Amino acid sequence: MKAGNLRNPRLAPLLALVMALVLTPLAHAEVKPLARIVAVVNDDAIMSTELDDRVRQVRSQLQSRNVPMPDDSELRHQVLQRMITEQIELQMAQRANLSVSDTQLNKALRSIAQNNDMTLDQFSQHLQKQGLSLGDVREQVRRELLINQVQQHEVAGQVNITDREVDQYLQNAGANANVQYHLGHILIAVPEAPTPQQAQAAKQKAQQLRERIESGKASFEQVAASQSDGSNALDGGDLGWRSGAELPTVFSDVVPDMSVGDVSQPIRSPSGYHLVKLLDKRGGGSADQQRDQVRRRLFERKVNDQLEAWTQEIRASAYIDNRLDEHGNTAGSSQ
C-alpha cells in the first residue's frame, strides 16, 4: 500500500527563503559583474549572475535563522552543487513533459503569503517594494514543484509500505513508538562505488568535522552549511522533527540512545558518512492516530533512504563541468 505523496525536502526551505527575502532589504543600485559560465550541466549552462543571486538569497535565509555564515568560497561551492542537481532534475522534468498548473502555483504562493500574514495582493506589493517581482517568485516555486514531481515519480512512486511493516515497527518500538526527534545532519558523500581510499578519506573528514564542532571552533549549523553534501545543508543541516519511524534506517539504532545536544560518531551508509546532532526530543501524537502516523513515517523513511542514492546516480550519469576554483571564482575571474 502506498503511504502518500512525497513531501518535497526542498520546498519548505524555499518558502522560508522567500520569506527571508521579503523581510531583507536589497541593494537596488548594485552593479552586477559580467556574467560567466560557472557550470555546464548536460546541454545547459549556469551563469555567475544566477549563482550570485542564489548565494545572496541563501545568505538571507541563513541570517534569518541565525546560522553563523560559512566561508564565502565554501558557500558558493555548496550553492552551485545544489543548483547543478536541480538543473538535472528540471531536465528530467522537461523530458517527461511534466508541468505545474496555475492552480498549484497559486496555492503555493498563497501559502507563502499567509506565512507572512499577508494576502496574495499584499505579498505582491511587498515584493515590489523590495525590488522583487511576483513573477520571479512564481518561477522559483514552479521549479521546485517540478522537482517535487520528478522525485515523486522516480523515488516516492516506487515505495510501498505493507501492514506487516507497520505491525513490526509498532512491536519493536513499544513505548517509544511516538517519540519524536529534532535532528541536525551532515553528510560527507562517497562515489557510488568508492575505493577503500575514498571511503577512508570521507570517514576522516567526518571525524575531523566532528572534532571541530565538539571543540567549539564552529557550530554544527555552520559546518553543515559549508561542508555537508546533504540536501538540507543550506538549512544548517536541519532535518526538522521526525519520529523513530521517520529516521533513516542507518540512524535508527543511534538516535534513540543520544542525549539532547549530542553529536554522533560518523555513521556509514551507501551514500557516505553521516554526523547527526540531537537538537531536541519530545513525545508524539495520540494512540488513536499511531498506526496511520507510523505508515506515513515508514514511507517517508524509505523515501529519504533512497533519495540521496538516487541523487548521486543522476549526477553520475550527467555531464557536469564545474568551473569554480577552490576560491569560488571562475577561470579568469577576479571576483
From TrEMBL:
Residues 178-280 form the PpiC domain. The keyword Nucleus does not apply. SUPFAM superfamilies: FKBP-like (SSF54534), Triger factor/SurA peptide-binding domain-like (SSF109998). Residues 1-29 form the signal peptide. GO terms for molecular function: peptidyl-prolyl cis-trans isomerase activity. Residues 217-237 are annotated as: Disordered. The keyword Signal applies. Keywords: Chaperone, Isomerase, Periplasm, Rotamase, Signal. It comes from the Bacteria. This is Peptidylprolyl isomerase. It comes from Kushneria phosphatilytica.
